[in-house]
Amino acid sequence: MTAQEGSANRRLSLVTVDQILSSLSNIAALIWVAHAFEPIDFGRFSLVVMVYTVAQVVFRSLIATTAVVHPEDVDARPGAILGSTLVLGIGAGALCSAAGLALVSSDSAMGGPILVFGLALPFLVLHDVGRYLAIARQRPGGAVVLDGIWFLLLPVGLIGTRAAGLDSLTWLIAAWTGSGVIASLWVFVQCGAPTGGGVRWLRERWDFSWRSTVSGLAASGTALATASLMTLFSGPLAVAAFRAATLLGAPSTAVQMAVGISAAADIARERTDPRAVWHHVRRAIAIATAVGVLNLVVLVFLPDVLGHAVLGEAWDVVEPLMLALSLKVLLMAAQSGLRASLIGTHRIQAAMVTDIVSIVLVGACMVLGAAWGDAEGALWAMAVGTGVSTVCWWIAVIWKGRGPLPELPATADEAAGETAEEAAEETAEPVLARPVRVAPGKHRA
């Protein structure tokens, strides 16, 4: 193993650790709510988490992914990226807070939690974008620090509010988001103060950002729509079993996501070298496949004793779904580095179209499978849809990979610099072209 490969593996390991830490904060809060509050409060908290998830999808697609594939911006002007993040984050937080105030005025139990969440939202999206900036700068340890601070502060907030007798859902949201707000301040230590005149950076990179956002929203929106449609064809027990089964596959999915993020960041820095790009693609697929095989072995051959310890009586309903779920995760491994290769080489149009086609295929298969055989039918159909979507990704990569790399649009600063240089060249008077006057009666030496 070369020193470069060893460094890449270390970065990937840190990105994986960061993905795990990022999910642990939300999982820990969910577990706390499940044990300390009534079931209805657990449902309300889940709604707040869903709002947060949608906000993450938007900001990751619009800003974080765009930053990852533009390492020149991350290296030279991270403050401009943070400036765009804060302007949009304040706008999103204001909308969320206004919704919370409207709910408070109507005496809704969701008013306080949504209001508190809206006030914290600008800092929460700043924290998430800061993680991706650290990964894009090939310093994933910074992302681990950001998520580590949040994870360590969270129990302090939860235990503190309980000790003070502040046991309402609003105060729990304040403890959860408050620890994230404090952790987000470390982004300024890592990247500096926000600059760049509002959303100027985002306007410069809009050609990439809007396509990335369409892909992200299509993924999250289709997932929500298909999950809702499944309830029309299946009973509550089947829907619960499906969600529990997919939850068991979440660790493997998190590793695959980490592999994709790391590969996209590396490919963006070596996009002009096809051999290096395919090296990162093969490496991502190999790691994701190994994780998928391990996931299959663990879930399919998991002893009933451990299954009941994790899911209780629900294990008897979920256990028949493990093979279909494991095959779906394994099929996803074959496309782990493909999306990263298209995004990292700035072929975002092809990635957007393939994302939409793949998601529609998988969603349609899921709904048809649920109508045919409840949760088990949905998962087997999803496995088939995932296999078809993997073929779509390979076709897109092979087809678009033959063409030349797309040219990167110049930023406003670069365009201004080029214009100034051209103007200087046009107005400059060439010294060697001036005529040399010779006085009468004199001759040149």
From TrEMBL:
It comes from the Bacteria. Residues 409-431 are annotated as: Disordered. Its main location: membrane. The chain crosses the membrane at residues 12-33, 45-69, 81-104, 110-129, 141-159, 171-193, 214-234, 240-263, 284-301, 321-338, 350-372, 378-399. InterPro entries: Poly_Biosynth_Transport. The keyword Transmembrane applies. The keyword Cell membrane applies. It is a multi-pass membrane protein. Keywords: Cell membrane, Membrane, Transmembrane, Transmembrane helix. It is found in: Cell membrane. Residues 415-428 have a biased composition (Acidic residues). This is Lipopolysaccharide biosynthesis protein.
